[in-house]
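tl;dr need the bound structure. longer version: we got a ligand (fe (ii) ion) that a collaborator sent over and nobodys looked at where it sits. i said id run it. heres the input, straight from their email, havent touched it
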Amino acid sequence: MKTHKAPAGKATESPVIEVLNKARSAELAAITQYMAQHYGLDDADYGQVAAQLKLIAIDEMRHAELFAERVYELHGLPATEPDLKAVKGQKVQEVPGFDACLEIKAIADYNAFMQLCLQHRDGQSAKLFETIIAEEQAHLTYFENVRDHIQDLGAAYLAQIAGGPAEAGAPAQGFVASQGKPAA
Ligand SMILES: [Fe+2]
Ligand SMILES: [Fe+2]
């Protein structure tokens, strides 16, 4: 249940709202970046990684929403612009290392933002950052694992992860069934 009201007139600004909005802009950038990679890798037949990217993008959407909710509770206006433009056309070899860097930056920034919230005695915003840092850490671990596997095993690993369904959780199905035609 929502306990806040949208601010009337000029939004309140505060250092806490400012960092919540910086985090929201980073989440909006992550969403578009991971969605671009999801479609790119799906096209390149790396459905398994594409499916995980889709799930991670959905996590980032939830984070963007949680930061916006907190900004509203503090009578501010949530940021609407991503802080980076999505890079397109990346190869599968580039994606996990690139994304690991994004997650490392998010974790470092959110740790600093959490400290700022504590300095301003806003335990609830600090707790939100703490919760989201743990989720970014899970994303980072996944990206680092894929990056390291590609580095260590190269073509063998890429061959192993090629193919497969791009829909997270969807049952694997053949080409004919995916066209909406009954399989023999
Ligand atoms: Fe996030
Ligand atoms: Fe993340």
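gonna send this back to them w/ a short note. The pocket of fe (ii) ion (ligand 1) is lined by residues 27, 30, 60, 63, 106, 132, 136 (CB under 6 Å).
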